Amino acid sequence: xxxxxxxxxxxxxxxxxxxxxxxxxxxxxxxxxxxxxxxxxxxxxxxxxxxxxxxxxxxxxxxxxxxxxxxxxxxxxxxxxxxxxxxxxxxxxxxxxxxxxxxxxxxxxxxxxxxxxxxxxxxxxxxxxxxxxxxxxxxxxxxxxxxxxxxxxxxxxxxxxxxxxxxxxxxxxxxxx
Length: 177
What we know:
The chain is of the alpha+beta class.
């Protein structure tokens, strides 16, 4: 799958099969994050891979994160505030999006998790103070099911066109002909 196909195919998956993610596939996805660009090449990230049910349950207390209990893998993306005070959040986000696209290309589903209580995640995963929990990523094989709500949502909230979200040279200026 090429990168544009992965971008088009990517979707938020909240229901996962019990099938475990093979180590070589997980490492390929993590490598995609490791090789992401960062400001001044500081690479202010650390990723915690969580497969333990008790720990995944502890990570699932956010309002929209309940399904993490039944997700085979959760990746917590941490940013080093000291190494890159201004850019750690952006850099970790870029690395995690690389992982999302790599996972999609490998046939896995993902869901970006921003619904969490940082203090609870830090306690559950023994994260030192200098690290900020930027986001978590649910990862696994999508459970085969009929998802009517996703189909309805897709019809109600269509993607905006390029002309709706872009300007040329200044805000509101349309593409030159």
